[in-house]
Amino acid sequence: MNYNITVLDGDGIGPEICAGAIKVLQKIGEKFGHKFNFTHLPIGGCAIDECGVPLPEKTVEGCLKSDSVLLGAVGGPKWDNLAVDVRPEKGLLGIRKAMGLYSNIRPAKLWKSLANASPLKYELVKDGIEIIIVRELTGGIYFGERASGDNWATDTEKYSVAEIERITKIACELALKRKKQIVSVDKANVLASSRLWRKTVHEYCEKNYPEIEVKDVLVDNMAMQIVKDPAQFDVVVTSNLFGDILSDEAAQVTGSIGMLASSSLGDTKCGLYEPIHGSAPDIAGKDIANPIATILAAAMMLRDSFNLSKEYTAIESAIQGVLDENYRTADIMEDGKIKVSGSKMAQLIAEKI
To answer: What is the rounded CA–CA span in Å between residue 22 and residue 204?
Structure first.
């Protein structure tokens, strides 16, 4: 199969980590008989330097024509003094809108080999964990009506049945590839929007995904359970506000954001895949940036946009194999391990496939 991938290298370490992911994808192509065609287009600060805007029209057109999009990172102090509406981060917000992306998938995966990196007790995470948080991205209180006076302010949480159904569908599709279980997080004991959320999730799953087991957890209890017993969770679906908070909490449990990927999806298979970390301009060009998050983002692309589950598993297994052989980049280095550069880590993973 042929797949056309738009690569938005972006700023700082973006080009380095994208290069590592491309190396791994090329090896996947060789082993499984696929051809990946890569088109590099500017976004963020580099787009401002080249085109005068953080999101050129040619970048939007290229992304919409591709089968999926891989993003490095955007931003850096070089552009901090620009007006807010033309700063690099506007490019990221713009491409999400242009692609119609309304969900954010954030896997918080702690590899068994890195269990000591977690701030939690070793006994809680010794076998590794993976919580996939599916966050609604374009609705809820962040986009609701707001008003304020001299001594008051209000923000409105509003969701429609259609908005809840479409994010539930994405969570269910992920769950089908895993344990066929989802946890829906809400505050239904207090909020009317959460009562609609809970009702809609259950009705949609019963009608369209009867094989999926649905469990409800209140958001305050969920926040506690993530640090008390994170291994009990698999796929979690929740609103914009709750997902924003819980995904960061779950990420912290893993001990290193250099290992965490994310994706944003909409109604089509063309998604946006990226690491959760920033552009880290202070280490750009030094070949010390950890490429694993971006490699995992590319793996998610194979699974979720291209339906290539075996290829996804091959990348995960290769990463696990390299970690089991004690290779580490600077950000996850421990005593007694073998320190390697970012490009070397990508090479080792590719060779394991």
So the answer is: 38
d(CA 110, CA 115) in angstroms, rounded, equals 7
Contact by Cβ (8 Å): 274, 113: no
CA angle 87, 78, 14 (to 5 degrees): 80
Token digits of residue 50: 């080249």
- Residue 127 is among the residues annotated as catalytic for this protein: no
**Residues 235-293: pLDDT tens digits?**
999 999 999 999 999 999 998 788 999 999 999 999 999 999 999 999 999 999 999 99
Share of the chain above pLDDT 90, in %: 92
Asked about 244 being catalytic, the answer comes back as yes
Q: Which of 258, 303, 301, 252 is nearest to 276 (CA)?
A: 258
Contact status, residue 12 vs residue 280, Cβ threshold 8 Å? yes
pLDDT value of residue 264: 95
199 flagged as catalytic: no
186 residue type, one letter: D
142 is a catalytic site residue: yes
DSSP conformation letters of 145-177? -EEE-SS-EEE-----HHHHHHHHHHHHHHHHT
The reported pTM is 0.91
Of the candidates 11, 67, 186, 244, the residue annotated as catalytic is 244
In the residue annotation, 187 being an active-site residue is answered as yes
Active-site residue, selected from the candidate residues 23, 90, 187, 352: 187
The CB-based long-range contact list for 302-306 (8 Å cut-off, 24+ gap) reads 302/25, 302/28, 303/177, 304/105, 304/173, 304/174, 304/263, 304/265, 304/269, 304/271, 305/67, 305/68, 305/269, 305/270, 305/271, 305/273, 306/1, 306/3, 306/67, 306/68, 306/269
Confidence of residue 69 (pLDDT cuts 50, 70, 90): very high
> What does the CA dihedral 106, 112, 114, 120 come to, rounded to 10 degrees?
80
